[in-house]
Design goal:
This protein is mainly alpha-helical. It contains 24 helices and 2 strands. The longest helix is centred in the N-terminal third of the chain and has 27 residues.
């Protein structure tokens, strides 16, 4: 009964922290493609829309289950932004409760399980995954991630081919929502060590069996990875080694691992885009930042692995492993890192913190009431920060301006701000032009900013300047058809 009440408290606290999404609208990044301007999604579940969802590669992603869930929203409740955001909140709240139930079932320790699940529910770094409609893929894939682990724990206890098939099915469904779940087989191996106790030193035959039983999951992950790379390359999202050398990728990976830890402990100045310093001609990270990050990561890894407390090693390795697909070794997009990538990766850190705090309080002989008050104070602070962060997602202009404020002059956000002004109509084209000019000043080879600068110049009759911008956009991204088509239009006989 007490466990059930604790789960309801987690649910209620999550909904309260995210209640501000109810009055919010779409943002201009990805939301138009996902819902606002997508007639198939807004039309609900039809034979045509379902067939499209199975094959669509929009925004450089293949995730049919995410499309189907958004279509189901529209079918049942309509396609207003409020509907999709509230469903995201419901999924996040369900994920927090599932995490609590999972940890209790595996460890039989309710208090640290409750604290870890509450950290997941209320940490402001997860606002991007919940308040951004386009990140339905995060909260939906998270649902199947936790369900798959729950099913695996049942299989580990009782065995059975049917239970194992259920694990694989849930994993495949999760991959169909977002391919970041590819590291689940490795996470299950970590859980085999602790808290399931299946991996045993000195038992090689047993351990080999644990490895072999992950093969179907690894094959599913491999197939999903190939689909992901194909989708991202078709959307021109993957940076080549020429644009970003391997050394720069490794440097950013080291620094980003450390920066995520900073966001875990000090969740302030969170932003939509953290620009990659090595892209668009940037200098990359300074050597001292890279060296300092590496020293920190190696030190924590050594301490965690040498600790007599297995939850520290498992929690830390969970973080390192689950972050691998998005740490930038394969650079997708313009960001150095992103808050949405912490959605499942921070779970291991929450577990390490919760169990580490429990050990600390027990060792110091602090009464349970004192430990509870300390945990409540932390969670209350996080709830306030989360509510504040939710407020930033009300509309695009404020969100982008906040990002520029906390990340400095950022070409990608100036571009986004220009698009947001442009969508407000011709009366705001002067503001849009200003932001596009700032973007190309900071990143002269930014093809999208060049193209849309050409568009607003064309709209105010500056034909020659528009042609110049379209030409530079086409040179920066030759595979993009839009600037070439604009040039053909402006150079046609009737427009001369």
């Amino acid at each position: 009964m007490k466990v059930a009440i604790a789960g309801l408290i987690v649910l209620a606290a999550t909904v309260a922290a995210y209640s501000g999404v109810a009055g919010q609208g779409f943002v201009i990044f990805d939301d138009p493609d996902y819902v606002r301007d997508n007639a198939l999604v807004k039309g609900g579940l039809t034979a045509e829309s379902v067939a499209w969802a199975m094959t669509a590669r929009v925004a450089s992603n293949w995730h049919p289950l995410t499309w189907l869930s958004l279509m189901l929203d529209s079918e049942l409740f309509g396609s207003s932004p409020k509907v999709h955001k509230l469903v995201n909140v419901a999924l996040h709240a369900a994920n927090a409760v599932l995490l609590f139930a999972l940890l209790v079932s595996m460890t039989r320790r309710a208090r640290p399980s409750l604290f870890a699940a509450s950290l997941f529910a209320l940490h402001p770094v997860h606002v991007e995954s919940v308040a951004w409609i386009s990140e339905r893929k995060d909260v939906l894939s998270g649902l199947f991630f936790f369900l798959a682990i729950i099913a695996y724990a049942a299989y580990a206890r009782r065995g059975g081919a049917g239970r194992y098939v259920f694990v694989v099915a849930l994993f495949v469904l999760g991959l169909a929502a977002k391919q970041m779940l590819v590291t689940l087989p490795a996470i299950l191996l970590l859980l085999d060590a602790w808290p399931l106790g299946r991996w045993r030193p000195g038992g090689p035959l047993r351990n080999v069996r644990l490895l072999l039983e992950k093969i179907p999951l690894v094959l599913a992950a491999f197939a999903s990875g190939l689909l992901t790379l194909s989708s991202q390359e078709s959307g021109f999202s993957v940076a080549s080694l020429g644009a970003l050398p391997l050394g720069a990728r490794l440097a950013n990976a080291a620094v980003s691992y450390a920066r995520y830890l900073g966001h875990l402990l000090f969740p302030f100045d969170l932003a939509l885009v953290y620009p990659h310093p090595g892209l668009l001609g940037g200098p990359g990270w300074p050597a001292v930042a890279v060296a300092g990050s590496l020293v920190l990561l190696v030190a924590i890894t050594v301490l965690a692995l040498r600790s007599a407390r297995p939850h520290l090693a498992v929690g830390w390795l969970w973080y390192l492993v689950t972050m691998l697909p998005v740490i930038g070794l394969v650079q997708v997009g313009v960001q150095a890192m992103a808050d949405r990538y912490a959605y499942l990766t921070f779970v291991g850190l929450y577990v390490a913190i919760a169990w580490g705090a429990a050990d600390l309080f027990a060792g110091a002989r602090i009464p349970a009431a004192g430990a509870g008050l300390a945990a409540a104070a932390v969670l209350a602070t996080l709830s306030v920060r989360t509510a504040d962060q939710v407020g930033l997602w009300k509309e695009s202009v404020g969100l982008f301006e906040h990002t520029i404020e906390v990340t400095g002059s950022n070409p990608h956000m100036h571009f986004g701000l220009g698009c947001a002004y442009g969508e407000m109509g011709p009366e705001r084209f002067s503001l849009a032009e200003r932001e596009f000019r700032k973007a190309v000043e900071l990143a002269p080879d930014h093809p999208q900013a060049r193209y849309w600068l050409g568009y607003v110049l064309e709209a105010r009759g500056a034909r020659d300047e528009a042609i110049e911008e379209y030409e530079r956009s086409s040179l920066a991204l030759p595979a993009w058809d839009a600037p070439r088509e604009a040039l053909e239009r402006l150079r046609s006989p009737e427009n001369r």
